[in-house]
User: Fold these one by one.
Assistant:
Number 1:
Amino acid sequence: MLITIIFLAGLWAGLQNSLAGGGSFVTLPALILSGLSPLAANITSTVALFPAQITSGLAGRQWVTGAGRLPFWGLFAISVLGGALGGLLLLNTPSSVFARLVPWLVLFATTAFAWGSFSRKQAVAKVHLGPVGAAFSQFIIAIYGGYFGGGIGFLMMAALTMAGLPTRNAGATKNALAGVINAAAVALFVVSPDLHWKEALALSAGAIIGGYLGSLALQRVNEKLLRIAIVCIGIALTVGLFLKPI
């Protein structure tokens, strides 16, 4: 029964990621409710969603580019290093400490998602990043992505558009770099005792199917309403985590 629920959570997350993002808002609580610790849930969710991220990155590879004078290989190297550092930081964080951090991380991810969904265009128009600023921003985002990951898509979209990339190129580059960041973390997580393979495989299968269904439904779903729903999920999850710590 629990595996079925986890599979359905993966299906929902894959669909949600394909349409608007924020799938970890679904997978994290589903895995925690199934009995995993917050640390194990985060590690298992990261590994499970990784194949779908690689698929998304490959699908838009023709639009992937560097950020101005910062070439893509530079962004790639920064993302690998930052993702690995974030993953190492997570593996060396005691589960009890991570449990106390989770409400704050979800709050930050929800805020990043809401800002990226509804306020980013106005905000980025006033800010421009050079190659050093773009490199530093990507490094910090990659560390956060390897450690937790919620909202990294919108943080990268903001940074890349501030660095001068058109929206289409920023989106494709963001998808590719998200896969790179998580690849570095996943390489560390696959040998972690906190990775629950049965749950990861069920979640991954659901996410792959959900991502495919999402690509089919992309033209039929009201994206703004979906983003509002995701922000509401994030707010409810944040409030629940603060009121009833894990």
Number 2:
Amino acid sequence: MPYQLLYWPSIQGRGEFVRLALEAAGAPYVDVARGDASSGQGLPALSHYLQDESVTRPPFACPVLVDGNQVIGQTAAILLHLGPRLKLVGASVADRLWTHQIQLTIADVVDEAHNTHHPVSAGLYYEDQKIEASRAAKEFRTQRIPQYLGWLEAVLARNPKGDQHLIGARLSYADLSLFQLVAGLLYAFPKATKRALKKTPRVLALQDRVAQHRRVSAYLCSERRIPFNEDGIFRHYAELDA
């Protein structure tokens, strides 16, 4: 039975980290909200899991993964669940916790990236908080991007199995999430991110390797990959990059 992924149909957002894991593993899944409402999919199906009182353990927000009777929210929790099933995490408890820790840290960067264009409130338009966004973006691009990518560089350098992967000697969901993080930062803050990547060659090399992975490469060229856009988490406003 295919996994059911529920996320907004027109943006990559946090759902993309889950899509990449499913695509890299060649796992069967349905991107439910992008389907036809007349066939039980589309936005009504997404709303069911978020709002219907019959869901006894309702997720707060999407992404949501439905795996049989299991309904799981939060990107990192979904990947923690999928990792062993898709063989995208090591077998030991230590490796699984370390992979989860890296994923949670990547989630922190994603939140900070979002907050550069919505530093006051997610309920306001970017145009209503441009002054505050300018200040937040300056801190993010000059301090936080180098710090986060520098930490990921150190994780790669200290991997006992070599610097080809974040954990162990084979592809993990953390590697896939690093790819998506760097891709998003390059879209939103191309100038600042390219400067940071010059000092983090292992991060850049891993991002390139993931992009060349057979299934990932095919996915990136397909219609299933939603382009970055200014409705998602990673948004490019030229005035916020320098």
Number 3:
Amino acid sequence: MKNTFRNRGLPSLKESATDRRRQLVTGRARVGGGIPPKLFLWGLGVLVVGGVLYFLNFKAELEAQRSAIFTKQRATAQLLAPKLIPLRDQIEGFVRELAKSDKEFVDSETDFNAIWSAPGIYLRLRLDETHQPETLRKAAAESLRDGFTSCLMKDLQAQSMSAGKVCRESTECETGEFCNEYKKCSRPSSPYNMRLLYRGLLILSDEWVKEVQEAGTDTMLEVYDHSLDSVTQVDIPIAIEVHQRARYAVVVIDEDPKEMPKPYSDAYESLAERVQRVPHNARVGIWDLKAERPLARLVARAEGELLAAGTRAPSQSPDAVAAQARLANSCGLALDVKSRLAPQTQP
């Protein structure tokens, strides 16, 4: 009985399977719970076409957003070109001049005591960073006031750089303030960092343009757009104002010691910080920005020692010790320059 059933059933199953294959090929069968294959293929095609159209539309919107950013950037460039770029080129020319020669010069008719309290621009970098425009500008964008400026130049109206309101962008600050390197709102004080100028010029750099071109989402482009607005509305007007007020430019070029010191601790320490931490020679140049002429060129010694005052001992953590060494050497450099340019004020 079993064999008879199998013999009768197998041909029927084979015939049914053959019919189903024929129907699938001809499109007359129903698959997926009763959906005709042609309808299924049409639906799949609609999804594919819709996805392509969405991608093209999304790409077009990104390009429109990118184009709007570059339009604003070009408008900003027209503002910067006649004001900040000539000043940048002037300062960079001073740097190259100081880097080429260590021949000393002092204008005997200049009252250097007046310079220490006058509005000025300050830039500090390593000698190796002066040879190429790219390395020079990168160093200038990171240049900040330090122990040299603290011990030499005074701004009686200066406020603490860490005392203002917390910020992320300069647009969050009050009128006349900018978001400084401590992420605090503050008013610029003399000597003005070249970093302030180069932050405004950053949006004209090839690197910034490349980053915007490679941004692949609308969120990333919104970040660049917001940053551009912050620079355009706050940083650039302040940079133009303070640099137009500046009367002098002071440049310090650190010469690397014969043996580059190793990092002091596991914490990050830049090459510039490592050089400033140990005694070394430095070239100091001072220029009259209005007359575009040098007032002094010196080779001085950056070397000093901090002496503890009071009963409280200074911190002995590696980072604190390194910072104290940089401060001592930079202040020693300032006192050396001050004693040679204005001997009557030597302590």
Number 4:
Amino acid sequence: MKTITELIVLNHTKFREDSIVLHTLSRDYGRRSFLIRVGKKTGMALFLPLNILEAEVTENSKSDLWFAGHIVSALPLNGIRNNLYKNTMTLFMSEVLYRTVKDGAIEDGLYEWCRGSIVTLDALESDFSNFHIRFLLEFAVALGFRPEAGDIAPFAGENLAVLDEFLKASFGESMLLPLTGETRNAIADSLIRYLEFHTESTISIRSLSVLRDLYR
């Protein structure tokens, strides 16, 4: 059975000289990995983190690793790819998703929320330095945790008041909250620990160090 579907790229790993395993999130299959044939002429930029692709998926009842082909970009995301800060944010966001959402999981509404977040980041022309913090809070909501100040308090330390402002603010208001780079980094660390606690997993985000360098 073959199905045309949209895939959000979370990560990819080399499988053989002519193949990669593409780790994705989709409306139809949730968190799932697909075998992709690649060659010397394959533009690997197609598989950058959080790219939104259209692919033909071939389902195989005899294997958990299905094949995806005829892959094209569904959205260009020029607003992200032409901006160093946004590119770094997508690296961070995709790693959070990759390490938090378990392979095979299908979370109702998660794909739609994630796609909307990507499109929103792509469209923002300024005032997006707080976007990854808003993303982490909304991700918790998308997973069903509904964070409140009292729930976050054990992880927030001296930044609880700022996080409470985020929780009460609209999206636009939260983008305009004045924060130092040090505070943004501390809040991101706090929210990662909060997600670890609620998902009962260890979320080691290597790309967080890159964000720290950008927002010193």
